[in-house]
């Protein structure tokens, strides 16, 4: 049986910035229009974290039973390492989805936006079918699109909307920035796994594009948020503080551009996530108070 430490590692703590950053940015945008609601913001954070842990366990389970993780270079996997029974990992994923659903119900009840139940159901379905089911869309090169939509647009704009009842141009910019960085995290991860994914038949976008073009895509996605920073900065100069997150991207950008492969790309995945968290926190704070 897997140890507690292995279960924690299987939850992939390094992916938590993908869940935390959009809530910070969306809440900052809501506070900027005097609509900050701490309880709804907290529940939104629980939803986001539950979903990211759930999708991580779901991926661990689905990739594990397919044998995709048997020869991977990346971090520890519960099923692929045979440390935990597949059924236990699947049940852990479903439990996380249940927590997300209950917390999301609280968000909907407090905000009065009952139509968002459909969006919540879509998010849970998207988390499971990323690598689950007979035709997972993550195996068809659509993972980056889903990440941009779910952890960018829906997460940021949804967080603002349930607190403010509206969305702003600033929040749209923040959603695009967060979505781009979240995609960059996935692109770096899939760049590392191109050799093993080709062998197992996992056709990620990185596999389809090839090594060189995937590196170009990562670079473009990593820089998009700072273009957004300049654009928003024309109206709110405090947002230019978002450039403080740029140094966190210098090392992963150098690794990707200079051709790092395999385990040497693991820090690039982690550091891109840290940069996203920093950019989301700074952008959210400056939208709130700037």
TrEMBL record:
It is a multi-pass membrane protein. Keywords: Cell membrane, Membrane, Menaquinone biosynthesis, Transferase, Transmembrane, Transmembrane helix. It holds the Pfam family UbiA. It is found in: Cell membrane; Membrane. It is an enzyme of class 2 (transferase). Its EC number is 2.5.1.74. The keyword Transferase applies. Its main location: membrane. GO terms for molecular function: 1,4-dihydroxy-2-naphthoate polyprenyltransferase activity. Pathway: Quinol/quinone metabolism; menaquinone biosynthesis; menaquinol from 1,4-dihydroxy-2-naphthoate: step 1/2. The chain crosses the membrane at residues 39-58, 88-108, 114-130, 137-161, 167-188, 217-234, 240-257. It catalyses: an all-trans-polyprenyl diphosphate + 1,4-dihydroxy-2-naphthoate + H(+) = a 2-demethylmenaquinol + CO2 + diphosphate. HAMAP family: MenA_1 (MF_01937). Conversion of 1,4-dihydroxy-2-naphthoate (DHNA) to demethylmenaquinone (DMK). Belongs to the MenA family. Type 1 subfamily. NCBIfam families: menA, PRK06080.1-3. This is 1,4-dihydroxy-2-naphthoate octaprenyltransferase. It comes from Saccharopolyspora ipomoeae. The lineage of its organism: Bacteria, Bacillati, Actinomycetota, Actinomycetes, Pseudonocardiales. The gene is menA.
């Amino acid at each position: 049986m897997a140890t507690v430490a292995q279960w924690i590692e299987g939850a992939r703590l390094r992916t938590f910035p993908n869940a935390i950053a959009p809530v910070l940015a969306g809440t900052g945008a809501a506070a900027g229009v005097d609509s900050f609601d701490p309880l709804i913001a907290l529940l939104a954070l629980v939803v986001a974290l539950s979903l990211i842990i759930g999708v991580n366990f779901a991926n661990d389970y689905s990739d594990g039973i397919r044998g995709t993780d048997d020869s991977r270079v990346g971090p520890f996997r519960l099923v692929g390492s045979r440390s935990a029974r597949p059924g236990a990992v699947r049940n852990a994923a479903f439990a996380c989805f249940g927590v997300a659903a209950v917390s999301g119900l609280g968000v909907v009840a407090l905000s009065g936006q009952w139509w968002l139940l459909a969006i919540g159901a879509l998010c849970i379905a998207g988390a499971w079918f990323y690598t689950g089911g007979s035709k997972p869309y993550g195996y068809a090169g659509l993972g980056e699109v889903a990440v941009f939509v779910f952890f960018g647009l829906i997460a940021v704009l949804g967080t603002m909307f349930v607190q403010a009842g509206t969305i702003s141009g600033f929040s749209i910019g923040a959603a695009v920035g967060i979505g781009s960085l979240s995609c960059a995290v996935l692109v770096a991860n899939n760049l590392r796994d191109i050799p093993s994914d080709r062998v197992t038949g996992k056709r990620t976008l990185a596999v389809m594009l090839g090594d060189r073009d995937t590196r170009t895509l990562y670079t473009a996605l990593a820089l998009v948020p700072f273009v957004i920073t300049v654009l928003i900065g024309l109206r709110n100069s405090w947002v230019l503080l978002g450039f403080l997150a740029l140094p966190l991207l210098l090392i992963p950008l150098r690794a990707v551009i200079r051709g790092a492969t395999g385990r040497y790309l693991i820090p690039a995945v982690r550091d891109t996530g840290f940069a996203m968290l920093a950019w989301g926190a700074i952008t959210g704070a400056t939208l709130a108070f700037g």
